[in-house]
Amino acid sequence: MNKTYCYIHIPFCESKCKYCRFSSIGSIQKLQIEKYVNHLCCEIELSNFGNSNLLGSIYFGGGTPSTLNNKQIADILKSLKSKYTFDKNIEISLESTPQNIKMENLLHWENLGINRISIGIQSLNNKALKEIGRKSKEEIINSLNIINTFLLKINREIVISIDFIIGLPYVKKGGVLEDIKFILNKYKFINHISVYMLEDYYEKSEDTNSSYEKITYPNSWQNLGISEKYYLGEYSEIKKYLEGKSFYAYEVSNFSKFNKECKHNKAYWNHSNILAYGLGANGFIDNIRYKNSDKFQEYYKGEGIFKEKISKNDLFLEKVMFQLRTSGLEKDIYSKLNQEKIKYFIQEKLLKKDSGKIILTNKGILLLDYIIRELL
Ligand code: SF4
């Protein structure tokens, strides 16, 4: 039976980070969260997605899902279980802030079957963290120490993923790499790392229709962080270092140890069916993309749901982008692209042939957007 993957959106955060483009609000009000979780459970139980029955993953994203108490997470999982069969190797991921990493939470999460925890670190530079509206390096280190003790206590493997952003204010060239080195040398249990560029956050958010706080990326940050021309060089250095530590880039921004890739991410890039529940959540079922409203009132009434059948052409364009960002272009895809351009990019060492596929070289990764534009 084909597996389906499931995304659960939790739109609450302790405060709003200055660069944030997600559907989230920066306040935690118990009653509001309770109402939201009750509605979310009803949404799951009353939904009807045909034959999408076997779940290969559940991803609690946000927002900050770790702001939910343990009963609320258990209730959501119970609703999902009443509706779907969980695959025996199901991946259940939960995004957490460092401050929500507490021993009692970790033990509860493990007990609920959560086997992948993704922690938004972003930087170990206290000035940068303060500027973007986050807590401190000390809190991050404390959370990693707690995880270390926790992993020694349990008999189960949990994937621990951490996120960084290149280009934050006050972080100088080489700063992100230094942070990653420091953490990997001290905490051997980390087996997945995501590295994003602040620029991406900025560009993608410009045309957002979100009704929430608009992006507040201040122009002055460009003078406080590494300049644009260093972004990509910084990325290359990080990639080289991580490869030396047995991490591989299974997607341009995502590095993992062997067999520790995020199943949920991969499902998204493979155009697998994704169920999505919660405010502003995006799903993809049988080539139809849908998105819940990102306004609470509409969401609670089941209104404002956007649906769009993806045309064959758009599906093809997405495949080109996803395959280039991940394992490379397969023959049935690259044979339909401009062959002269492919030849030129191979000559320029931006692309190369590898096991019957066409993949990006390290130099090509740095020019990914340009290559995609030219190939299409
Ligand atoms: S970046 Fe993450 S933690 Fe910060 S406000 Fe946005 S969703 Fe919340």
List keywords for this structure.
2 domains; binds iron/sulfur cluster; TIM Barrel; single chain; 16 helices; globular; nine-stranded mixed sheet; 376 residues; alpha/beta
Write a brief structural summary.
By secondary structure, this protein is an alpha/beta fold. The protein has helices spanning 30-46, 70-83, 103-111, 126-132, 137-153, 175-186, 198-205, 221-224, 228-244, 263-269, 296-301, 312-325, 331-334, 339-347, 362-366, 368-375, and strands spanning 3-10, 54-62, 85-96, 116-122, 159-166, 190-197, 248-251, 254-256, 274-277, 282-285, 288-291, 306-309, 351-354, 357-360.
Task: Please give the structural blueprint.
Layout: E1 3-10, H1 30-46, E2 54-62, H2 70-83, E3 85-96, H3 103-111, E4 116-122, H4 126-132, H5 137-153, E5 159-166, H6 175-186, E6 190-197, H7 198-205, H8 221-224, H9 228-244, E7 248-251, E8 254-256, H10 263-269, E9 274-277, E10 282-285, E11 288-291, H11 296-301, E12 306-309, H12 312-325, H13 331-334, H14 339-347, E13 351-354, E14 357-360, H15 362-366, H16 368-375
Parallel strand pairs: 1-2, 1-9, 2-3, 3-4, 4-5, 5-6
Antiparallel strand pairs: 6-8, 7-8, 10-11, 11-12, 13-14
Helix pairs in contact: 1-2, 6-9
Iron/sulfur cluster is lined by residues 13, 16-17, 20, 22, 24, 26, 62-64, 120.
